[in-house]
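Contributing new records

If you add data, match the layout below exactly. Sequence lines come first and carry their own label; structure lines follow with theirs. Keep one chain per record. Anything else will be rejected by the validation script.
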Amino acid sequence: MSGDTNSGSENGAAFGRGPPADRTPQELLEFGVVNLDKPPGPSAHQVSGWVRDMLADSYGRLATPTAGNGENSTDRSQASDSAGDREGIGAGIDRAAHTGTLDPTVTGCLPVLTGRATRLSGALLTPKEYVAVLEVHSRLPEDFESIVGGFVGPIYQKPPRKSAVSRRLRVREVYKADVLDAEERRALLRIECESGTYVRKLCHDLGLALGTGAHMGDLRRTRAEPFGDGALVTLHDLADALAAVEGAGEEIGGVERENAVALSAVVQPAERALVHLPRLTIAHSAAREVANGAPVYAPGVLGYDSPLRPLADRTAHDGANREGGEEGPAEDSGKGNGDEEPLVACYTPDGAVVCLGELVGDPEAQRGTVLDTERVLV
């Protein structure tokens, strides 16, 4: 396993986006992810549209030099032009995509990809975690917890009538179902499940199994791997961070470093959305070939790592072509079989993602194809 790592040579020169930690605010907006705390009321589609519009407006103001700033305005314009000359940079913000729809009444973890990062959405059809209120139509039976436990494993589901997918019977897997609290006719459940599982339908089926009838009350998504609810961002947080960046002084692409760092806590580099995937590091010269349509060959591979994934390690469905559940219709990731291996994320030595693909060879090999690309991101 080898690769050209001489940054002074033509083949080894840095290619594509720079290191995630060194990106300007404009670059973050063009290729970022927001771990949004969806409020009750609007649909996930509406929220994504609001995020897109907020980022597009802010991007436009950052890209436009402010009259009267003299030399600093020139520097800011030149910094913007320099960023626009780099591959994959300067495209603006014309889109945003959530990674799984939530009903208007449902709250919680809604990762929203921005700009060119929307091409990553298929890689985030990952296991989800919910906390749900089960409203039971009669007293809870004594064996309630054991009945709930009986739903762990593969289950049959038919989407509800009000759904965006075809109503055909399909199999989804529940990885874990815990009873957090219970009273006479109500229970609080924590559900870990495969992407595309309808929690509302699960609550209905639980009521049938209990013999009492039941329906779902409140529902909150607490995890959409690799994102959890420990560092959620509200729409107000996003608006405040964008306002702070726009009002900052002139230093790095028109923004002081501390403000750029503050923005990255709200709009994270899109690579954050891929930490659950196996990681293949390639030389800059190999990244340039990938951008031109080539697969990844063994001589360009510098390293390979497959991280431990807390939820996804219980399933082989990562990146599978799945229709949505409580999180709605899912995008085709290029995988047609849920039993296939997950996608692999390919990075430069600087930590910038280059592509997603399927591992077809040994990363330790000296020759041959190691990875067939499915989505080129530079």
